[in-house]
Structure formats: C-alpha cells, structure tokens
C-alpha cells in the first residue's frame, strides 16, 4: 500500500497578493482539492501567529515556507 502524501495547509488572508500567487501555484501542482487553505482572520490565535508571515505553507504540522513561495520551493518541500 502506498502512503498518501500529507495534505499541505496554506495559511492566507483575504486581499494578500502573495497568498493568491501561492494558491495558484498549489492549484497548478496539486489541483484544487490537493491542499487546504485556512484564512487566518477566522481565528485569533492564527492571526497572532501568522499576521506578518503569510502566506505560510505547513506540512505535517510544521511551517515549511512563508512569504514569497516559488515553484522550486514548493517542489522541494513536496518532494517533486
């Protein structure tokens, strides 16, 4: 049995152009159902944690990429 790849989480905020760019990259690489987006404005703890770092890509509970997320960075983190 092949283990499923951990599901990436992208922490974002509405109106963030870097978040939009990272979302487009993830859609292109994983498909629209291949990752989860979480709006940090929906949770005070997330807002405090990520307010000045978004977008942040987390994988298996660990923050792996933040701010300017590029295709080569995503490929390295996702093992592609």
Question: Gist?
Answer:
This protein is an alpha+beta fold. The chain has 3 helices and 4 strands; from the N terminus they run βαβαββα. It has a domain at 28-67.
Percent range of helical residues: 25-40%
Radius of gyration (CA) equals: 12 Å
Structural class: alpha+beta
Query: Number of DSSP helices?
Result: 3
Overall mean pLDDT stands at 91
Describe the structure.
There is one protein chain. The chain has a domain at 28-67. It starts with 8 loop residues before the first strand and ends with a helix. It contains three helices and four strands, in the order E-H-E-H-E-E-H. It is globular, with a radius of gyration of 12 Å. The mean pLDDT is 91. By secondary structure, the protein is of the alpha+beta class. It has a four-stranded mixed sheet, with helices on one face. The chain has helices at 17-30, 44-50, 71-78; strands spanning 9-12, 36-39, 56-59, 62-66.
Helix and strand layout, with pairings?
Blueprint lengths: L8 E4 L4 H14 L5 E4 L4 H7 L5 E4 L2 E5 L4 H8 L2
Parallel strand pairs: 1-2
Antiparallel strand pairs: 1-3, 3-4
